[in-house]
Write a structure and sequence with these properties.
The complex is a heterodimer of chains A (about 80) and B (about 210). With about 80 residues, chain A is mainly α. Helices cover about 70% and strands about 0% of the residues of chain A. The termini of chain B are far apart. The chains are: A mainly alpha (about 80), B mainly alpha (about 210).
Chain lengths: ~80, ~210
């Protein structure tokens, strides 16, 4: 298995969707290839960072809605 | 004693049904209350799908007007916030289908390169563990700006799968794609976002 194939199968590996023999070959490559271990780790960091960026932390105030947008929505609802 | 359906449910569900009932009866103050309480969080959702501010505001307006017209269909099975959230996501997807596209980068430019023998052309370096800084507002803002740089077809799949936590089949149905195409786009979107974040998180060479 090459680095290109490791990157290609990475999502399936993390989702536990690789068949057993392919999983063994995949992990065999990781044991010998630090750049692919770095790639896998940074791919997982990317997923965690995107979730943290988009989910409002507990207690955090949400963004304000511009007052002109509130008034436009209220105005449009009255005309419905 | 109040024996309305709302009074027999959990307090939050009862409050949501009562608010919906006031809107149904034409109480403009109730609609404004929902808009002011929920609007900020939902505008953030719209901005993720539609980085252009005008598009995001249009989608929020479309969503609240749809909700206003469809308030009879709110049954308290989900909270009012969750119900509105789904309507906003649908409004964003409709807006993405109908509005003129903005220029964007090619996904190919954001995918890793490989040598002819299959090795990584630029071997990946280790990242520092971003767990501690992930919750800081400046980090969150940086990551959101990088997500906004993803090509639209890929950003949308990443948002539906990884942020909205929809499954592959529902995402495929909403976007008119095959499940296989959703999986391919999600993997490419994550790889592209990794490339965009790499300069900020990789460890320096010693």
């Amino acid at each position: 298995m090459t680095c290109r194939e490791v990157v290609e199968f990475l999502m399936a590996y993390l989702a536990d969707e690789l068949p057993g023999t392919q999983r063994d070959v995949f992990e065999g490559h990781l044991a010998l290839c630090p750049p692919c271990v770095n790639y896998l780790d940074s791919y997982q960091h990317t997923m965690r960072l995107s979730k943290a960026a988009c989910h409002c932390p507990d207690g955090a105030a949400p963004a304000d809605v511009p007052e002109e947008l509130i008034l436009a929505i209220l105005d449009a609802s009255r005309r419905n | 004693m109040d024996e309305s359906p709302a009074s027999r449910l959990a307090p939050s569900v009862g409050a949501d049904l009562a608010l919906a009932d006031r809107i149904r009866r034409g109480d403009g103050g109730a609609f404004e209350e929902v808009l002011r309480v929920q609007g900020g969080r939902l505008l953030s959702v719209a901005r993720r799908f539609l980085p252009n501010e005008e598009d995001a505001r249009d989608a929020l307006q479309d969503a609240f007007l749809s909700a206003y017209r469809a308030i009879d269909r709110f049954d308290g099975q989900a909270s009012l916030g969750t119900w509105l959230h789904r309507i906003v996501v649908n409004a964003c997807l409709t807006k993405l289908r109908t509005r003129r596209r903005h220029p964007e980068r090619s996904i190919e430019d954001l995918l890793p390169a490989f040598l002819d023998d299959g090795h990584q052309a630029n071997p990946a370096r280790a990242w520092r563990d971003p767990a501690d800084e992930a919750q800081r507002e400046e980090t969150r803002d940086l990551v959101r700006r990088r997500i906004a740089e993803l090509p639209e077809d890929y950003r949308t799949v990443l948002l539906l799968r990884d942020i909205e936590e929809m499954d592959t089949e529902e995402t495929a149905r909403l976007l008119g794609l095959t499940p296989g195409a959703v999986k391919t786009r999600l993997h490419r979107a994550r790889q592209a976002l990794r490339v965009l974040l790499e300069p900020h998180f990789r460890q320096e060479l010693s």
